[in-house]
Amino acid sequence: ADTDGQIGNRSVLKSFTQFLTSTAYMIRSEYIQLRMLMCEDSVKESNSRDDAQSIDHGLLAKDYIVYEDQLQFFALLARLDIRQSMDRLYESLYSRCSALQSEFTRLEDAMGSGTYTDGDSTNTQHSIDILHEQIHWIVLLMGYTLADSGNSERVLIPSSILEASAGSHDIEHDFVVQGIMTILKTLQFELMSPSSILASYGSPLLVETLLWTLKRIAPVYFMIDSSDYRHPSSNIVLSFGKPSEGGSGPAVIDGILDFVRRTFDLWISEEDVLQMCVDMLLAFAQRPNIAQEITRSFRFTPLMMYFTSNIHRFPESIHGSMIEALAVLCCHSSSEEHERGFTEL
Length: 345
Hints:
This protein has 16 helices and no strands. By secondary structure, the protein is mainly alpha-helical. It is globular.
């Protein structure tokens, strides 16, 4: 009788779990679809307001703060079936990033051929604005799903995500790794040269969101310590881990330092973007494994010199956090050149 009862309890638990999973899937799907539609409405509404109203609307609050409860709830539901959730988010992000690149390519070709008209400009800007807004929301959803927040404690990769990544056949089919890589590629694409004819079509909001997401997930996934996990994912280790474990973490860190420099070059007038960039650096500086790798990078000394030489050009509001980030990073380096660069501040 006890055995029959246990079998019955397991059957009920299995049915309940399936019910939760299927319900969570429907809620996630509807939420993503709703958000994508709201992005279109938001762009239309923004276009119908005058410039001052649009600017005020953008400065009032950040989506990752205003909608934090919704985003956390989405992440909770996503982790009930993380493989399916990340597949959907990755596919949504990849398709829209591809569409955005196509729009920029068509725009560049039209400008180069001299066939670009005011009507083309309006239509293209509208399409680009919608894609930027949609990518902004997908990246936020991925950021909340991939990592928990934690300012005073060490955050680890959630077990369900680690298991899903470890269970993938290879890196190409690991949508956890591919999702993070697509975030990095999107940031690289958005940080085009200030001299590019397409620079004015970039989105400071999206760049800020991408930096915020890296600030949240990079300290968790980059240069991970395999000893923190019973069964670490080899895909994550190879993609973002230490060179001693065969990881490509140093190359990724080099790329991010390049992003930092390009962010300051392109968006020097956008205080919120620069502040988020510095906040990201500070988050990296507080993780010894990442901080040490940053100071070893061939890009770090030039970046230090760039900051020390141009600090008068940056908003005063970011000076304090910039100096703090550089000071903490220098604590992880014995290089006299780094110390000399920081002393100049």
